Amino acid sequence: MTEDLLPMKDSAHWHLATSVPVAAPGDTVEEILASMRGRLFDCADPVVVVDSQRHVLGQIPLSQLLQVPPGRTAEQVMQRDPPSVRLRTDQERVASV
C-alpha cells in the first residue's frame, strides 16, 4: 500500500464511521426504527438516506425520527444535502462543519 492511500491521522478519513444506519427514500419511520433495533453502529445518529447506488440524498437526526408520525417516509422527513467533507480534509476543518 502506498503512503498516499494511508489515512492521515489529522484528516476526516481517520475519524470515518463505517457502520451507520441507512434508509431508502421510501422506507417508513417504523421500518427505519425496526431496522435499527438490536444492531450496533459506530454512530447511530443521524440516519443516512441513500439511493439504490448508495449515494447520499439526505439525513434524519435520530431525535427528529423519534418524533415523526407513523407512516411518513424517509424522503418526506429527511434533511436534504447534509454537510460533507472530503476524506483528506483536515480534522480541524471537519470539526467546524
Descriptive terms for the model:
globular; alpha+beta; 4-stranded mixed beta sheet; 97 residues
Helix-strand blueprint:
Blueprint: E1 22-23, H1 29-36, E2 47-50, E3 56-60, H2 62-65, H3 74-77, E4 79-80, H4 91-95
Parallel strand pairs: 1-2
Antiparallel strand pairs: 2-3, 3-4
Short description:
This protein is α+β, with helices and mostly antiparallel strands and 97 residues long. It is 22% helix and 13% strand.
The residue-averaged pLDDT reads: 80
- Low-confidence parts: 11-15
Rounded radius of gyration (Å): 15 Å
How many individual β-strands? 4
What is the H/E string? EHEEHHEH
Strand order of the largest sheet: 1-2-3-4
Strand content bin: 5-15%
Level of helix content? 10-25%
Number of helices: 4
Overall SS class: alpha+beta
Shape: globular
Structure description:
With 97 residues, the protein is of the alpha+beta class. The chain has helices at 29-36, 62-65, 74-77, 91-95; strands spanning 22-23, 47-50, 56-60, 79-80. The protein has a 4-stranded mixed β-sheet. Mean pLDDT is 80; it is low at 11-15.
